[in-house]
Amino acid sequence: MKKFLFFMLAAVLLGMTAGMTSCESCGKGEPGEPAVYDNTVTPGDYDGLVQDFTAGVAHIQALHRQTMYSMGVTDYEWRNSEVLFNDTISFEDICELYVVDITDVFQYFDNGPKVQFISSDIEKGTVIPHPVPGVWIEDASLNDAQIKLSAEDVLFRLCEWDGIIPPAVSMSLRLPVGPVECNAQWVIGNVYDAIFVDAVTGEITDWCPAFPRN
């Protein structure tokens, strides 16, 4: 089963920086408090998140987890989160990007393995679950992963990076499966090329840290 390429950013992402027109106006994100909620979010928090599409990626991810709760699925693995932008990620326009959709992927079992895709259309304010039979094998569980950089932080860091950003309109949060243990990664790119931003340290590489560099 083939996975979504790269996952989508947050409700308001750079709506808060709407007046900025160049990367000189952007602040570089620094690793700090965890950007993604842990699994202690309770169903009681769900109602307060339903319409909160301007709170950032972490809140939308929490909303999607609560959607799993509302469907009666409490034993799941959060495998992937994709943040989709309105335009291609580039140095010139990085501060003018805004999020249009966020999709999270969950693995669970219900009379067999199932993969649940939950998408939030930011502009329409809708949350759509889409279950399919199958096993998500490309990423390890993010349930207990340490995540200090938000999607917003990653964009700010790319403003000051001197490398090449592969053509992409989205980024994904993943914990890659490979022979080398690594932190969760924000991945920007396409089927041919990608860069990886460590979600804990902020280090940017042009190879997947889960595999030895040739």
Task: Tell me what the structure shows.
By secondary structure, this protein is α+β, with helices and mostly antiparallel strands. The protein has one domain (15-205). The chain has helices at 46-49, 57-70, 151-159, and strands at 77-85, 99-109, 113-121, 126-133, 170-174, 185-189, 194-198, 204-205. The chain has an 8-stranded antiparallel sheet with strand order 4-3-2-1-5-6-7-8, covered by helices on one side. It is globular and about 50 Å long.
What's the overall geometry?
A: globular
Q: What multimeric state do the chains show? A: single chain
Q: Give the H and E element order.
A: HHEEEEHEEEE
Q: If you average the pLDDT, what whole number results?
A: 74
Strand content: 25-35%
The whole-angstrom Rg is: 16 Å
First and last CA, distance: 27 Å
Helix content: 10-25%
- Summarize the main sheet: 8 strands, antiparallel
Order of neighbouring strands in the sheet with most strands: 4-3-2-1-5-6-7-8
Low-confidence stretches: 1-54
Quick tags:
eight-stranded antiparallel β-sheet; 13% helix; 8 strands; 214 residues; disordered N terminus; alpha+beta; single chain
Concise overview:
By secondary structure, the protein is of the alpha+beta class. It has helices at residues 46-49, 57-70, 151-159, and strands at residues 77-85, 99-109, 113-121, 126-133, 170-174, 185-189, 194-198, 204-205.
